[in-house]
Design brief:
The chain has about 90 residues and is mainly β. It contains 1 helix and 6 strands; from the N terminus they run ββαββββ. Helices cover about 5% and strands about 40% of the residues. Strands 1, 2, 3, 4, 5 and 6 form a 6-stranded mixed β-sheet that branches.
């Protein structure tokens, strides 16, 4: 699939640009490998600064399948590249 702006939201008040990274949440049906492909977030390049953190939740059939954190590693000339995912453990043993 492709980036869907409906899944991206700021996480609280955004920090002042240059002072601290902004936090974002993103819900998608795309895999972590798809999301961390260079250019995936290009249409949102005006929102991101290098160092911003995106918490991604991937859903499948209405349930959470994976979650992870990506860092914006570059954003130049409208091309956004985020880091490979730092996986978050998603288990429910009850």
């Amino acid at each position: 699939m492709a980036y869907d702006s409906a899944g991206l939201n700021s996480a609280g008040a955004q920090s002042k640009a240059g002072n601290a990274p902004a936090l974002w949440t993103y819900t998608t049906t795309d895999t972590a490998a798809t999301v961390d492909t260079s250019g995936y977030f290009n249409s949102a390049s005006s929102l991101f600064n290098v160092g911003d953190i995106i918490f991604r939740v991937t859903t499948s059939s209405g349930a959470v399948s994976t979650a992870g954190m990506h860092v914006v590693v570059s954003n130049a000339s409208g091309v956004v590249d985020v880091s490979d995912t730092t996986a978050l453990t998603v288990t429910d043993t009850d």
